[in-house]
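S.,

As promised, the zinc ion run. Input:
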Amino acid sequence: MKLFLVLLIPFVIRWAVRSYQTGRVMPVLYLSKKHQDFLARNFTYYQKLSPESRKRFEQRVASFMGSKKFIPRQMNHVTWEMKVLISASAIQLTFGFPKLELSYFRNILVFPQSFFSRANQQYHKGEVNPRMKAIVLSWKDFVDGYLKTDGRNLGLHEMAHALRLENKIKNREYNFLNGRLLQEWEEHARRTMEEINAGTEVFFRSYGGVNNEEFFAVAVENFFERPLEFLERHPLTYQTLCKLLNQNTALIEKA
Ligand SMILES: [Zn+2]
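Predicted complex:
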């Protein structure tokens, strides 16, 4: 038996090296002290969690970070600070689920600032690209999103798009959003989008009126950045989103 295990070692090493070289990554179960301290200094959502929840958050961030290939675009490399914060953004959104890593989206592309998209000949701050299995972010705009609590947050916005797509893609993370709640959500969304487009809605920005997906992403930004105002102005929509994401950000805010 021992000999068998010893014989396995070269194969395990080769697998690990190949995984590293190809960007296919290995599960990481804990976050280093340096990364924890960085989160504690820079990530408000994490700062407000209980000590037990912080531990769980750290494990989720480590696991997410280890499962993605971070690809620099128009810059030399993606720093560890970028990786930690981008991963934290994804876990912030999915923290209500026991384990959800948006597994279809294996690639995280990071640009220093907004980038030109050939698809529609415009500059983008971020996008989700299912063909490339990628979440694409402008770092400058990602950071700006977390510096202000104005209901605009690029990271959460793009993660929200990825979440809805992940839910529809038939893989191991398929169909995790409750169908009845999604229907309830679509009903709130339809009504609120009508109000946005009629100019009578003032809380959600007008971009939320473009389509269902954009409304969801804009609502998510507000759910995390301005939960108390969201609850006050749209209590039913807020509560449906709470149930859908299995977390209550207004409670975290008040704590
Ligand atoms: Zn969008």
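Strands lie at 69-72, 107-111, 115-117, 122-124, 126-129, 134-138. Residues 157, 161, 214, 217 surround zinc ion (CB under 6 Å).

- D.
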